[in-house]
Amino acid sequence: MLEFAVVGGGLCGLAIAHGLQARGRDWCLFEARERLGGRVLTARARNGTPVDLGATWFWPPNQPNITRLVADLGLASLTQIDDGCLLHLSDPNQPPQTVALSGQQAPDSDASTAATSEAVHGGARRVVGGTGAVIQALARPLPSERLRLGQRLVAVIDRGDHVELHLRRRDEADSTSFSDIVLTRRLVLALPPRVLDATVSFEPELPAATRQAMVATATWMACAAKAGFVYPHAFWRDNGHTGNAWVSHRQAMLGQVFDACGPIAEQADARQGAALAGFAAIRAALRPGFALSRDLLLLSQMVQLFGPQADDAAHPPELFWHDWATEPETCSPADLADDGRGAGAHPHYGDPALSLPLWGGRVFLAGTETASQGGGYLEGALVAAARVRRQLAALNDA
């Protein structure tokens, strides 16, 4: 029987596992995907350029935990390029206009008004090498035998003095699914609350207030999709652009585009590190209808924003795409039903019902959506992990 089981191999789950390992405890982490990171996903171009297709930014002034972790792991970061100006494409039949943003992240009605530096991204920073470098650095010292990938939690049963987990995994030899049973004294569920509600059964049922809070808590990034474009060099900088763009017409494939270059792209002779990335503007339910023409439409929009070099036949970009709405580990039916509602508004996170120990202190909910601060962001994942570590320590001291 395990002393601790952690379900969810994203930043929160790994931070909790890291703490358990440091204290010499008996633990295992179970992750449904065949990779660690959760909503952190860094792709690599053929030339080595990293492209974040999931969590991308952190903000040092109000996110101290992720800022400190990046430094403690010995990772470098760079400021998101942002002079307060961007290209705004509001009409698909007209060229984009360069607009200056005020501190309220809105185009100023007075064209002569100077742009406010960092108005687009608010002083955001990115991890050199991609956010996946944080996941790799956290996982590196953890024993591989304690990291169980490809095991999806489907049921949790309270046995009084321990908890019984039912985990489904796939046999690659014949593609059949079968279940493992794992016993543990303490269980940490580092999963989005709505995903947990939709995919895991509990015996007995969780308290009504907990279940209601789970269903009401939207999953961050659930219906998001991101594209990345890796180029031989950052031609848009040569042309005086930061890479920041907004597209607001109804036919837009991407609603927001930004410079995704690494530090090497700042060198005049750089041959790698030049990239742009953007967020899908099309609702999740409509994206399958664009599957065959998607890449062509994405590149067409980039050409309209940045000119013919964005799709140069002699030096074509390497294109990446990831749709988080297709992943049951990230997107629940409730999230899909909510897609498009309250667009642009940050969901409410940190419901107190999601931070209480359950079943007499045998089960704990974690994940960025449960955080009292920074919910939805990398910061929230670490805030939630710290809260669970304190709760576990208190039980051990009692």
Task: Provide an overview of this structure.
The structure is a single chain. Helix content is 22%, strand content 26%. It is α/β, with parallel strands linked by helices and 398 residues long. It has two domains: 2-40 and 134-220 and 346-397, FAD/NAD(P)-binding domain, CATH 3.50.50.60; 83-120 and 223-326, Polyamine Oxidase, Chain A, domain 2, CATH 3.90.660.10. Strands 1, 2, 10, 11, 12, 13, 14 and 20 form an eight-stranded mixed β-sheet that branches. Strands 8-7-16-17-18-15-19 form a seven-stranded mixed β-sheet, with helices on one face. Strand 16 and strand 17 (254-259) form a beta hairpin. Helix 2 (64-72) crosses helix 9. The longest helix has 20 residues, at 378-397. The mean pLDDT is 92.
Give a nutshell description of this structure.
With 398 residues, this protein is an alpha/beta fold. The protein folds into two domains: 2-40 and 134-220 and 346-397, FAD/NAD(P)-binding domain; 83-120 and 223-326, Polyamine Oxidase, Chain A, domain 2, CATH 3.90.660. The chain has helices at 11-22, 64-72, 132-139, 193-199, 208-216, 235-238, 294-306, 333-338, 378-397, and strands spanning 2-7, 27-31, 42-44, 50-52, 57-58, 77-79, 85-89, 97-100, 125-127, 147-149, 151-158, 163-171, 176-189, 201-203, 225-231, 245-247, 254-259, 274-280, 318-323, 363-365.
How would you classify the helix and strand content by structural class? alpha/beta
The run of helices and strands is EHEEEEHEEEEHEEEEHEHEHEEEHEHEH
Shape: elongated
Gyration radius over CA: 22 Å
Strand tally: 20
Q: Class of the largest domain in CATH?
A: Alpha Beta
> How far is the N terminus from the C terminus?
21 Å
CATH topology of the largest domain: FAD/NAD(P)-binding domain
CATH architecture type of the largest domain:
3-Layer(bba) Sandwich
Number of helices: 9
Q: Could you name the CATH homologous superfamily of the largest domain?
A: FAD/NAD(P)-binding domain
- Into how many domains do the coordinates divide? 2
The largest pleated sheet is described as: 8 strands, mixed
Strand portion, in percent?
Answer: 25-35%
Mean of residue pLDDT values: 92
Helical amount: 10-25%
What oligomeric state do the depicted chains represent? single chain
Which stretches of 5+ consecutive residues score pLDDT under 50? none
